[in-house]
Queue: 4 jobs
Job 1
Amino acid sequence: MGRHSVAEEPVPHPLDPPKRPQGRGEATGSHRIVGKKAPRRRIAKWPIACLVLVVLVAIGVFGWNWADGELNTRAEAQAKACSAGDTPMRVIVTPSIEKPVRAAAERWNNAATVVRDHCVIIQIDALSSASVLDGLVGRTNLDSIGGLPAAWIPESSYWVTELNTAKPETVGSPAQSVATARSADYPLVGLAGKNIDEVQMRAAQTFRQYLQQPAQQADFAAAGIKAT
């Protein structure tokens, strides 16, 4: 009774699974690699760069050919659309707006703008609003302003009101501003009378809309005149 008893190790049952050894990792044929991944294989970048370059060159060539073909197609279409030939259209402007309107007219003419099967060629003349009004209402000879223009752009609606009061039959279409400045609204008014046909009257309205587009408005801004 004075001796300490030693616990006997239980005898494993034949059906129990074998015990795993403690304190060591699983065998892998050698020591186990923990926390490391196999190095990733690098892909060469130069073949991808070459492929991208080839694609970009192909897109550029295609785009250039498409643009060139598109311009040729438009030019051919405009030439066919201008079946009735050229029609001149004279526009008188006040001197302060001559530069941007003349630039717009040159752009219009270079584009061979077609109105009702006519290629309308615009001519710009700069004269004072007072002299133009005098010629239009008969205070002076109409020849003093070079004859009746298809359109007129004075510096103010005041002059259009004076024309409409003195000779309303001369006004072919309502005036509308194409730019503004201090004490000026630059209205374009289409005129009517002898030698002004329907094509010119229509072209005057189309040119007014043309002057209100961004490209032409940029010319006004460059001349120190505000856009509409």
Note: The first strand starts at residue 86 and ends at 93.
Job 2
Amino acid sequence: MKIAPSLPRFATVGVAATIIHVLVAVALVALMNWHPGLANGIAFIVANLFSYAVNTHWSFERQMSLKSWYRFLAVSFLAWLLTIAVSWSVDAAGGSYQLGILLVVALIPGLTYLGHRNFTYR
């Protein structure tokens, strides 16, 4: 698998998925008066489905399948757990929440890319 074309494509999809997440969450809270937790949960699902479909076809040039969908979800779930662990660890060490966010943004996308490249789409 070629790293060169898949990495910038993966980053582009990640930015687009983040924008989708924000738009869906804001719409559900502001327009439909949903609870922010539920709105973000739904927004995560929508953004994750978008991310899977576009990354599968464009970033990694594969066909969608149940097997790759399960693997995509596993990598996404592990990234979510790691995000929580990094944030809590920074807080437990006395660091600011901004440092936690910075570390999450610096570490998680690259690790997620490697997980998808080496597990989801192998």
Note: The CA atoms of residues 14 and 105 lie 11 Å apart.
Job 3
Amino acid sequence: MPEIWFPNLGIEIAHLDRTAFTLFGRSVYWYGIFIGLAVVIGVWLALREAKRTGQDPDQYVDFALYALVFSVIGARLYYVIFSWDYYSAHPEKIFALREGGLAIYGAVIASILTAIVYSKKKGMNFWLLADTGAPCLVFGQMLGRWGNFFNREAFGGFTEGLFAMRYPLDDVRSGDLSPDILEHLQMINGVEYIQVHPTFLYESLWNLGVFILLIILRRHKKFDGEIFGLYLLGYALGRVWIEGLRTDQLKIGGFAVSQLLSAGLIVAAVCFLVWKWKREKKEHATEN
């Protein structure tokens, strides 16, 4: 029987191991490989854009090193803070990164804060740095979601839709199983399957669309910071509804943290872009 199954698309994957290979007795997971690819390709894209816009590519290599370290710290810190009920009882697990527990919003926040400090120290234009990095960041987010696919995580509740995906029940974490999933278990040839929304796929495709849009618009931007603002708006618009489908939400006061943050980012990004567009229009009219 297949390990992963998209029944309405006729796609069956017989075997998909979380582990890509073993190195010196340690398992190297596909999740880590996809994150590594996202970093490498993201840096390459940033260097190309830096050269195109007349910036110093070496500054982006240095920034990438700092951003990588602090984004991992931020991703873990975000996850631990909003899962504190568990980690307060198991403090020894806080640094157990190989057991999972990284939140992309934590990485994004940490990367932005790192960019603010780095640009100030180096005398760089933060908004130009943010515009250069935004397409790279969303591309990395698109690629990284496929690590969730290999990990059998970041899925939604039960669905019978076109993209419905099946995992064997024993392959997923019990904490990710919602009541509606358990009510619709599929027994096929003696194997119990869950049938769910592949939210990792939804977000990956959404991020790909945002990436393409930013790449097109970067040559036509009217001010520094516009591409970054559009990134925040585009990513948050996708995340605010996709997060609502997921069963592994980090919550505060009964609300999904990432949905609340996404809603706030949508408002902030719209206000920022409208303000800047009006300002640019007014300055252009004054010059003429």
Note: Residues 3 and 15 are 6 Å apart (CA to CA).
Job 4
Amino acid sequence: MAEPVVAIRNLNVRRGRAQVLRGINLELRGGEFMGVLGPNGAGKTTLLNVIAGFEQFTGDLTLFGDRARMRRTRAQRLRVGLVPQLRAADPAFPITAREVVMTGCAGRAGLLRAPNAHMRRRAGELMDLLRVSHAAGSPIGWLSGGERQKVALARALLQEPDLLLLDEPTAGLDMAVRREVMDLLCDIHARMNPAIVLVTHDFDMLPPAMRRAVLMRGGAIVHDAPVRDVLTDEHLSGLYETGVHTFMHQGRRYISYD
């Protein structure tokens, strides 16, 4: 069996006296689509930041078969794409959506080298795929939240990552755009087959391609199994300490609370 894309053993994160992550053990294989779910403060984003190289930790972390430290190798950095949580953009900031996407090739081309024709063409293809090519020449601060999130996703994909990390990609978006983003993630997974780690609160919009769910609470993993086995009324009610009911409608999973 091939080496896992990510292998974590007894990983811990402390901030001062607070234990943010405790005893995390996790493996992710190539092409696997995994969701990380749980209430606020569960440690989901911290776990993502550890994998991305933005968080100090103790324990063992291996990426693509090689041990990872805070100072990552160039090869490790190039193989990991990150889409962080959506942030406000200054409408006066003088950079277009296309230029933001093109920054995704800086790691491969070199920071001071101009992108070649292949990279420019690929950037256009990704913007078409993500349905944001109409905004290519617009300042990034003029775009809607959904458009900016799709631009961020195109930027990460231009890097050609083997591992794609997504931190709450639908937070703050309206229902139609949330569904579109999750459907696009399924399309990306089918076309490019990266390993994907999706941190989300959005139980009502979980992409069908996500077959594995990791539930976190209090900085620890409490369940890790196929979605159908993890996202049950019993497990979710224990996770959120309230009555939770799951149901399927038109092939999608929804939840309600008591």
Note: The chain has a mean pLDDT of 89.
